[in-house]
Amino acid sequence: MERHISPSAHIGPNVSIGYNTVIEDDVVIGDGCVIGHNVVIYGGSRIGRRVRIDDNAVIGKQPMRAANSIFKTGDALPPSSIGDDCIVGTSAVVYAGANIAEGVLIADLATVRENVSIGGHTIIGRGVTVENYCTIGAYCKIETNAYITAYSNIEDKVFIGPGVVTTNDNFVGRTEERFKHFKGVTVRRGGRIAAHATILPGKMINQDGLVAAGSIVTKDVPAKKVVMGSPAKEVGDVPEEQLLEKQK
Question: Residue 213 is part of which domain span?
Fold first, then answer.
């Protein structure tokens, strides 16, 4: 069987669909989309116009739950939604309940979990994981292999470098007390985190704050300040020409 397209799916004009692709019930695909080979689009997913979905990508997957997961199995999540002019790379997975705005790039091998929203024109780099219950703003750039932990809030025009790790559990997986304190990270508008930095649970990088490469952030980062080291300490001001308000 070369492909399966449900009779209840609505496929717009000028849509290209590759071999072995599965499009389930009530999927909507807008005009001018390009769907690669071996793609799976689960029931009810909404794909905007001129979207490109590359080979082996999966859209609208319902989450799995381990027996000891803190996230308990409940009702099926609503379908995923992908806005106009997005690109979803090879072998990327976008879960049910994810809402992707227009012009977003989700690169090869990236994972966007359930109950996630991503603002317009953001780049989710190769191999990035965005865990559940995260909000990511518009015009962000999250580079290769960064890890955005559950319950994080990333505002607009944030830069997160390759290999950055964010965390949400100060108890490192032990004791019942930890369930009361899960909290991801917050990066305010224009915040920047350089390569391989680690941000501890609940910490905030304030507007235009900058975390140097390899740093371990154990305290909130003040607005327009540079922090560096392990643990990270304030070392000066962000150069004026680098402030978001100075960018074109």
Answer: 3-246
**Element (DSSP H or E) covering residue 95:** strand 93-95
Residue whose tokens read 């317009």: 120
pTM for the model stands at: 0.93
Which residues make beta-bridge pairs with 186?
Answer: 153, 204
Instruction: Judge contact between 133 and 118, C-beta under 8 A.
Output: no
Structural contact between residues 90 and 55, judged by C-beta atoms closer than 8 angstroms: yes
Q: What are 228's two structure tokens?
A: 């560096």
Terminal-to-terminal C-alpha distance of the chain? 51
Q: How many residues does the chain have?
A: 248
Q: Number of structural domains, the chain?
A: 1
What is the predicted pLDDT for the residue at 176? Answer: 76
Q: For the domain that residue 177 is a member of, what is the CATH number? A: 2.160.10.10
